[in-house]
Amino acid sequence: MTTHELLYLDDLVVGAEYRSAEHGLDAGQTVAFAREFDPQPFHLDAEAAKNSLFQGLSASGWHTAAITMKLLVGSVPLGNGIIGAGIEMQWPRPTRPDDTLHVVSRIVEIVPSRSKPDRGIVTVESLTLNQHGETCQRLVSKLVVMRRPA
Questions:
Q1: Per residue in 123-136, pLDDT tens?
Q2: DSSP characters for the chain?
Q3: The domain spanning residue 66 has which CATH number?
Protein backbone atom coordinates (compact mmCIF):
# COMPACT_ATOMS: atom_id res chain seq x y z
CA MET A 1 0.00 0.00 0.00
CA THR A 2 1.29 3.46 -0.89
CA THR A 3 -0.50 6.62 0.15
CA HIS A 4 0.09 10.35 -0.10
CA GLU A 5 -2.17 11.23 2.84
CA LEU A 6 -0.41 11.87 6.12
CA LEU A 7 -0.91 9.12 8.68
CA TYR A 8 -1.35 9.58 12.41
CA LEU A 9 -1.60 7.17 15.34
CA ASP A 10 -5.37 6.69 14.98
CA ASP A 11 -5.02 5.89 11.26
CA LEU A 12 -2.69 2.94 11.81
CA VAL A 13 -3.78 -0.67 12.31
CA VAL A 14 -1.76 -3.72 13.23
CA GLY A 15 -1.03 -5.78 10.13
CA ALA A 16 -1.25 -2.88 7.65
CA GLU A 17 1.48 -3.06 4.98
CA TYR A 18 3.15 -0.29 3.04
CA ARG A 19 5.32 -0.82 -0.04
CA SER A 20 7.87 1.74 -1.16
CA ALA A 21 9.05 2.84 -4.55
CA GLU A 22 12.26 1.25 -5.89
CA HIS A 23 15.84 2.42 -5.70
CA GLY A 24 18.39 1.12 -8.18
CA LEU A 25 21.93 0.81 -6.91
CA ASP A 26 25.11 0.87 -8.96
CA ALA A 27 28.83 0.52 -8.25
CA GLY A 28 29.33 4.29 -8.36
CA GLN A 29 26.83 4.87 -5.53
CA THR A 30 28.23 1.95 -3.55
CA VAL A 31 31.83 3.18 -3.74
CA ALA A 32 30.95 6.86 -3.19
CA PHE A 33 29.01 6.09 -0.01
CA ALA A 34 31.75 3.77 1.26
CA ARG A 35 34.50 6.27 0.48
CA GLU A 36 32.78 8.84 2.68
CA PHE A 37 31.21 6.74 5.44
CA ASP A 38 32.48 3.12 5.50
CA PRO A 39 35.87 2.93 3.74
CA GLN A 40 36.50 -0.80 3.82
CA PRO A 41 38.03 -2.73 0.89
CA PHE A 42 34.95 -4.91 0.25
CA HIS A 43 32.88 -1.74 -0.26
CA LEU A 44 35.50 0.18 -2.26
CA ASP A 45 37.34 -2.22 -4.56
CA ALA A 46 35.75 -5.02 -6.59
CA GLU A 47 39.04 -6.91 -6.89
CA ALA A 48 39.80 -6.77 -3.15
CA ALA A 49 36.18 -7.70 -2.39
CA LYS A 50 36.52 -11.01 -4.28
CA ASN A 51 38.68 -12.39 -1.44
CA SER A 52 36.45 -11.08 1.36
CA LEU A 53 33.63 -12.72 3.26
CA PHE A 54 31.28 -11.11 0.70
CA GLN A 55 33.05 -12.62 -2.35
CA GLY A 56 32.42 -9.47 -4.35
CA LEU A 57 31.69 -5.78 -4.06
CA SER A 58 28.91 -5.09 -1.58
CA ALA A 59 27.21 -1.97 -0.32
CA SER A 60 27.81 -0.92 3.26
CA GLY A 61 25.01 -1.99 5.57
CA TRP A 62 24.78 1.67 6.52
CA HIS A 63 24.23 2.53 2.85
CA THR A 64 21.39 -0.01 2.75
CA ALA A 65 20.01 1.57 5.94
CA ALA A 66 20.19 5.07 4.39
CA ILE A 67 18.36 3.89 1.26
CA THR A 68 15.79 2.18 3.48
CA MET A 69 15.22 5.43 5.35
CA LYS A 70 14.67 7.33 2.09
CA LEU A 71 12.17 4.70 0.91
CA LEU A 72 10.40 4.63 4.30
CA VAL A 73 9.85 8.38 4.30
CA GLY A 74 8.15 8.07 0.93
CA SER A 75 6.02 5.04 1.74
CA VAL A 76 4.99 5.50 5.38
CA PRO A 77 4.03 9.20 5.44
CA LEU A 78 3.65 9.83 9.15
CA GLY A 79 2.25 13.28 9.92
CA ASN A 80 5.02 14.11 12.36
CA GLY A 81 7.78 12.37 10.37
CA ILE A 82 9.53 9.10 11.11
CA ILE A 83 10.88 9.63 14.60
CA GLY A 84 12.78 6.66 15.96
CA ALA A 85 12.73 5.54 19.57
CA GLY A 86 14.92 2.47 18.98
CA ILE A 87 15.71 -0.15 16.36
CA GLU A 88 16.87 -3.70 15.82
CA MET A 89 18.57 -4.32 12.47
CA GLN A 90 19.98 -7.32 10.63
CA TRP A 91 21.64 -7.71 7.24
CA PRO A 92 21.03 -11.35 6.26
CA ARG A 93 22.63 -10.96 2.81
CA PRO A 94 24.81 -8.36 1.15
CA THR A 95 23.32 -5.58 -0.94
CA ARG A 96 25.05 -5.64 -4.32
CA PRO A 97 25.79 -2.72 -6.67
CA ASP A 98 23.31 -4.00 -9.27
CA ASP A 99 20.42 -4.49 -6.83
CA THR A 100 17.09 -2.70 -7.11
CA LEU A 101 15.72 -2.28 -3.61
CA HIS A 102 12.26 -1.67 -2.24
CA VAL A 103 10.89 -1.76 1.30
CA VAL A 104 7.82 -3.54 2.61
CA SER A 105 6.80 -2.28 6.04
CA ARG A 106 4.22 -3.87 8.34
CA ILE A 107 2.69 -2.43 11.51
CA VAL A 108 3.44 -4.94 14.28
CA GLU A 109 2.21 -3.19 17.44
CA ILE A 110 0.56 0.07 18.49
CA VAL A 111 0.84 1.23 22.10
CA PRO A 112 -0.81 4.55 22.99
CA SER A 113 1.13 6.49 25.63
CA ARG A 114 -0.46 6.60 29.08
CA SER A 115 1.45 9.68 30.19
CA LYS A 116 1.31 11.63 26.90
CA PRO A 117 -2.12 11.11 25.32
CA ASP A 118 -1.15 12.96 22.12
CA ARG A 119 1.13 10.11 20.97
CA GLY A 120 2.05 6.45 21.04
CA ILE A 121 4.79 4.00 20.13
CA VAL A 122 4.32 2.05 16.92
CA THR A 123 6.49 -0.97 16.13
CA VAL A 124 7.14 -1.42 12.43
CA GLU A 125 8.97 -4.28 10.70
CA SER A 126 10.56 -3.14 7.44
CA LEU A 127 12.13 -5.59 5.02
CA THR A 128 14.45 -4.15 2.39
CA LEU A 129 14.18 -6.53 -0.55
CA ASN A 130 16.20 -6.82 -3.74
CA GLN A 131 14.81 -7.46 -7.22
CA HIS A 132 14.66 -11.21 -6.45
CA GLY A 133 12.55 -10.69 -3.32
CA GLU A 134 15.51 -11.58 -1.09
CA THR A 135 15.85 -9.73 2.21
CA CYS A 136 18.98 -7.56 2.33
CA GLN A 137 17.97 -5.84 5.56
CA ARG A 138 15.42 -6.42 8.31
CA LEU A 139 14.64 -3.41 10.45
CA VAL A 140 12.30 -3.41 13.44
CA SER A 141 11.67 0.17 14.55
CA LYS A 142 9.86 1.66 17.49
CA LEU A 143 8.48 4.97 16.24
CA VAL A 144 6.95 7.90 18.11
CA VAL A 145 3.70 8.63 16.27
CA MET A 146 1.45 11.55 17.12
CA ARG A 147 -2.33 11.57 17.11
CA ARG A 148 -4.05 13.64 14.40
CA PRO A 149 -4.10 17.34 15.37
CA ALA A 150 -7.51 18.69 16.39
A1: 999 999 999 999 99
A2: ----S-B-GGG--TT-EEE---EE--HHHHHHHHHHH---HHHH-HHHHTTSTTSS----HHHHHHHHHHHHHHHS-BTT--EEEEEEEE-SSPPPTT-EEEEEEEEEEEEE-SS-TTEEEEEEEEEEE-TTS-EEEEEEEEEEEEPPP-
A3: 3.10.129.10
